TrEMBL record:
InterPro entries: C2_domain_sf, RPGRIP1_C, RPGRIP1_fam
CC terms in the record's Gene Ontology section: photoreceptor connecting cilium
Gene Ontology terms: biological process: non-motile cilium assembly; retinal rod cell development
Any one GO molecular function term: thromboxane A2 receptor binding
Domain RPGRIP1 C-terminal: from-to ranges: 1-162
Lineage of origin: Eukaryota, Metazoa, Chordata, Craniata, Vertebrata
Name of the molecule in the record: FTM protein
PANTHER family: PROTEIN FANTOM (PTHR14240:SF4), RETINITIS PIGMENTOSA GTPASE REGULATOR-INTERACTING PROTEIN (PTHR14240)
Gene this chain is encoded by: Rpgrip1l
Amino acid sequence: EKIRIEILSFCLTDSRIASDETIQQLFVECRLNNAVVEETPLSLPKRTVGQRIHYNYSSVIYVDKANNQARREYLKAMLLKPDLHTESLQFTMVTDPMEYEQDLECEDIGLACVDLRDILQKQRDIIEEDIDVFDLQDDSTVIGKLKVTVEALHVLRAVYEECRDD
């Protein structure tokens, strides 16, 4: 009755983000249905192009009937109405200003998505896969690769069976 997420690492590609000196630290937010459900507890220093930032962060999003009915209903709606165009699970790369840069604020710079419907259709979880992170200022530009694990197949099957029983 849960979705397990691991945010393993991030690797910059040659983009405006890599050359932007004001971007020093990065962390990752994970959203389900536009609600932030998790974020990496640490922001880590930006590395050079091709080097990985290792978060090694693991978390669980509970979607049980008893305590998380709203999330479960969202999963049902997403599975029943594929035309909704809802991005299932969103990973946002966020800049975190250094402590001495109090005048700057955190800024969303990139977005990566995992479509939970794909996990159900392909009948396989995403295990340590690199997903593209797209620039929020130019969604045709990939700014990096985020290595993630999303284990959701078991709960998606259960929710899908509930949909068929209703």
